[in-house]
Specification:
This protein has helices spanning 22-31, 79-92, 129-142, 147-160, 163-177; strands spanning 14-18, 37-41, 55-57, 71-74, 96-98, 111-115, 118-122. It is of the alpha/beta class. It has a five-stranded parallel sheet, sandwiched between helices. It is elongated and about 55 Å long. The two termini are 32 Å apart. The relative contact order is 0.11.
Length: 184
């Protein structure tokens, strides 16, 4: 499935995470660094959720839980529940990710590389999360360890240099960190 990689600000947004198992836990762990308010809906969530800054509702999914929610992740072990969540969200215009059904998704969770202000997202449009993870591992191994520091320096230089000079300086900083001359 071909999808456009929006980088959306989700800080302060409310996410309803339907499900409390390991898959749901991994989704919550991806959202928390982005300062999203995660609300977990599950009668018996796994204990690891208790260690996370999330709100836990010990209940079954009900469409009334969608009130005031910005986006939803359906991550239960029950395909019928996930499908119902997806249907309810689409009726209300709420973006939804259904972990077991790419066609029931309005967005996908990419494999992420986070280094300070740098976020690199890799997606296969839901077709192969394993391939996205392998690509993430590879990119992490070849990226400069100090990418966050480089990003901060580039932000500072943006105020001093303009146009082609700025781009050339950024390119030089990046490739020097890799031990290479500037590449084109």
């Amino acid at each position: 499935m071909n999808s456009f990689p929006f980088m959306k600000i989700i800080e302060g947004k409310k996410c309803l995470l339907v499900g409390g198992g390991n898959v749901a836990l991994r989704k919550a762990e991806k959202l928390i660094p982005f300062k999203t308010s995660v609300i977990v809906c599950d009668e018996t969530p796994c204990e690891d959720f208790l260690k996370l800054p999330v709100k836990i509702l010990r209940c079954c999914y009900d469409r009334s839980l969608l009130n005031g929610i910005d986006f939803v992740v359906a991550a239960t072990d029950e395909r019928t529940v996930n499908a119902q969540v997806s249907k309810d969200c689409r009726e209300r215009g709420i973006p939804v990710n259904s972990v077991d059904d790419p066609d029931g998704c309005d967005f996908f969770f990419p494999a992420l590389i986070l280094r300070g202000d740098i976020t690199i997202a890799i997606s296969t449009g839901g077709t192969s999360p394993a391939l996205a993870a392998v690509l993430r591992e590879y990119l992490e191994s070849v990226l400069p360890a100090d990418l966050s520091k480089i990003s901060k320096e580039c932000a500072r230089l943006r105020e001093e240099k303009k146009g082609a000079e700025y781009i050339s300086t950024v390119r030089s900083l990046f490739f020097r960190s890799l031990g290479k001359e500037t590449e084109k």
